Amino acid sequence: MKKILFSVMMLAALSAAAQQRNNIVPSFEGAVEDFKPNITNQLGRQYPMVNSQGAVRAQLRAPQANAVRLDIGGRKYEMVKDDQGVWTGTSAPQDVGFHYYQLEVDGASVPDPGTVYFFGAGRWGSGIEIPSEDMDFWQVKNVPQGSIVEKYYWSKATESMRHCYIYLPAEYDKNPGKRYPVLYLQHGNAENEQGWSAQGHTGQILDNLIAAGKAVPFIVVMDYGQGQNIHLVGQYADMLPKPQPGQRANNDGFQVVLLTDIIPMVEREYRVIADAQHRAMAGLSMGGGQTRRITLANPTKFAYVGMFSGGVMSIEDIQGAAGFKETNKVVFMSSGSKENPRVMEAAESLRSIGVNAVGYVSEGTAHEWHTWRRSLYQFAQILFK
Amino acid sequence: MKKILFSVMMLAALSAAAQQRNNIVPSFEGAVEDFKPNITNQLGRQYPMVNSQGAVRAQLRAPQANAVRLDIGGRKYEMVKDDQGVWTGTSAPQDVGFHYYQLEVDGASVPDPGTVYFFGAGRWGSGIEIPSEDMDFWQVKNVPQGSIVEKYYWSKATESMRHCYIYLPAEYDKNPGKRYPVLYLQHGNAENEQGWSAQGHTGQILDNLIAAGKAVPFIVVMDYGQGQNIHLVGQYADMLPKPQPGQRANNDGFQVVLLTDIIPMVEREYRVIADAQHRAMAGLSMGGGQTRRITLANPTKFAYVGMFSGGVMSIEDIQGAAGFKETNKVVFMSSGSKENPRVMEAAESLRSIGVNAVGYVSEGTAHEWHTWRRSLYQFAQILFK
C-alpha cells in the first residue's frame, strides 16, 4: 500500500513538473464578465471572446476529450468541460493588439475553428484581436478606397515565380499620367507577405490617412522576406553581403531578391517615381533589421528608412555607409513601450550628426501588430513630403 | 450477470448504430503506397498526403486522444495511434479536384494543421487537392501576369462596406486608353468571394489562356453572393423579385446588390465597356442558379450567360424573358460527368429556337472545383468574341 501511495505521489509530482515545464496553468479566475465576440471570428461564431481586461475566452465542443487547453501568450490555460461536452477556458489579460494562438486537444495543437486564419508564428492558424482604444485608424471606412493587388512575378535570382501584395492608392487608376513614390514594407520573422495587409491593415491605414489629407498618396509593396526560404541560384547566390568581423553570417537572400527582382518589377509594371527620393523601406522586427542592413548596404537607394521594433541605427552605422546621410530624408525608429525601447535616445543621437531621425514609442503596446500599425500610421505621415 | 451482459451487448449495439449514423468507417486498407504531400499543404508539411488512387492520408500528433478521425467526403475514417502518439488514417479514393475536409479529435471538429485554409462548406477550414491529369491549365506559369485586386466599396443597398476581388488582365495597366469587357463570376453555396481566385485559380486560368491567344483579355469580378447574409435596407429590400406561382420565395439579395452597387462601382472605377455585349455573368452551383434568375430577370443586360453545375435554361425560360434571345450571344451550361448532367440536351433544345447554346460535360469529375475550373477554361475561350 505504501509503495502504491508513493508511486501515485511520484506520478502526481512528475505530472505537476511536466505541467510547469509546459506552462500549463488553470483557467483565469479573475475575469470581468463583459466578454464580446472577437472581431476576427468567422461569420456567426460567438467564440473566442475578449473582455475589457483583454482576457480571452475560448470554447470548443469535444465531448470525448480528456484535456483541452487555450494556448496563448506562452501559456496553456486549462479549459473545463460542461455536461454537453463543451470546453470553456479563459486566459489571463493579454496586451492590446493582435496575437497568434491555438487550442490543444489531448496533445494535438490545432487552430481554433472559431476564428479566421493568419500566417504568423510560422504557420497558418488562429489570431485574436485584443481591442485598443485607438482602433479607429485601421477600420474600413466609407472613404475613397485603394486596393490590395495580389501579383505573381518571375524572379531571376531564385528562378521561380514569386508572390507579393501591392497597395495602390484610390486615385491611382484615375490619374494615368501620374507617377507615385513607393514604400517597400516587410513583415517579421515567421510571417509572410500577407501580414501587412491582413494583420497590419495597411490598406485601411493608408486609405484613411490619404482621405484625411494626412499622407500623400503612395504605393506600398509587401513581399516575402524569410531568408531561409529564399533559395538564390547561380551568380545571385554569390551576391549575399559578406559578414563584417564579429557579425553572424548573413543568410538574407531577401536583399538580393529585392534589388534584382522586386524593385525592377515594380518600376516596370507600375507608375512609380524610380529614384531614391521617392523610395522608402521599412519593416517590423526581423523586417526592421533587414531594412537597416539593406539601406546601409545600399546607401544611395532609399531616402526614407523605417524600423518598427527592429533595432536602431547608430552614428557609426551611418558614418560607415558612404552617401547614406546625403541621400536620407528620414530615419524612423519605433518600438512598443513594453519592449524596453532605445529608439528615442537613438534618434537623439542621430540628430546630433544632422540626420533627420524620428523616434516613436507606442504607448502601452508590446512586440505585436498594434505597435506596428501605429508605427506605419506615424511613418506614413512623414513620408515623401 | 445476464443483465450486465445484456447491457454490454446493448451498449455495443447502440455504439455500432451511432457509428453508422455518423458514417464512421475504418481507415481505408487498399491504398497504393505512393503517397505524396498534398499541394495545398502549409510550407514544409508532409501531411496530408494523396496517392495515385486519390486516397487521402492524414496525420496528427495527439498523444492523449481517445479517437482521431479524418472527416472527408461525408465519411469519418478512423485514424490509428502509433507509440509516439501520432495518429494516421487513410480515406477511400476521392474524386479528382478540390475537397473541403476536417479532422475530428475526440469529438471536436477542427482544421487539419497541415493545410492552408479555404472558405467553403460555410467555414474557413482545410482543403485538399486530388490531382487530375489536366492540372496544367491552372498552374502559375512564367507568362504575362494579371493581378487579383482586393477592393472594398460602399453599398447603398446594404448601407455597408462590401468586399470583392477583381481580376485585371496583364495588359490592363499598360493600355490606359483601352476599355475591357467584364465577367461577373459567382461562387457556390456556403462559399465566398475568395473562392474563384483561391480554389478556382481564376487568375492563372485567364493569364494562361490570354498568353496563349485563346481568350481575349477581360476583367472578372468576384463578389459575395450568399443571399441570407445580404441584408438589404429601405427601398432596396422591396426590390427583390416576387416569386412566380409555384416558386419558392426568393431571398436573393445578391441580385439587388449586383445591379445597384457592384456593376455601377466596376463601371465607375475600372476601364470597362459598359454595355450588354461586353457584360457576362456566370456562376457555379448556387451561383449558376443566381446567374439564371438574374440574367432572365434582366434580359437585355448580359449577352453571355454561364451556368456551371448550376442547372439549365429551358425554351420557356427564354421565351418568357422579352429581349433575352435578341441580346444573348452565348448560353453556356456545364456539369461534371458524375453529376447526372442534362446540359447537353438542354443546349440542343435551346439551339432549336436559335439560341447559341453550348453544353459542356467535364469528364470524370463531380460537383466540385475541378469541374468549375474546366468550365471557366471552356467558357473564357468563347467569351466576347
What does it look like?
The structure is a homodimer of 385-residue chains. Chain A has helices at residues 2-21, 195-198, 202-211, 253-269, 286-297, 315-319, 324-327, 343-351, 369-382; strands at residues 24-25, 36-37, 49-50, 56-61, 68-72, 75-78, 80-81, 86-90, 97-105, 108-110, 117-120, 123-130, 147-155, 160-168, 182-186, 219-222, 279-284, 304-308, 330-336, 357-362. The termini of chain A are far apart. The first copy, chain A, folds into two domains: 22-131, Immunoglobulin-like, CATH 2.60.40.10; 136-380, Rossmann fold, CATH 3.40.50.1820. In chain A, strand 5 (68-72) and strand 6 form a beta hairpin. The first copy, chain A, has nine helices and 20 strands. At the A-B interface, strand 10, strand 12 and strand 13 of A face strand 10, strand 12 and strand 13 of B.
Major beta sheet, strand line-up of chain A? 13-14-16-15-17-18-19-20
List the total number of helices of chain A.
9
Output mean pLDDT of chain A.
Answer: 94
Give the helix/strand class of chain A: alpha/beta
Largest sheet of chain A: 8 strands, mixed
Please report the first level of CATH classification, the CATH class of the largest domain in chain A. Answer: Alpha Beta
- CATH level 4 superfamily of the largest domain in chain A: Alpha/Beta hydrolase fold, catalytic domain
Helix content estimate of chain A: 10-25%
Number of domains in the coordinates of chain A?
A: 2
Fill in the CATH topology of the largest domain in chain A: Rossmann fold
Shape of chain A: globular
The first-to-last residue Cα distance of chain A is 81 Å
Instruction: Specify the CATH architecture of the largest domain in chain A.
Output: 3-Layer(aba) Sandwich
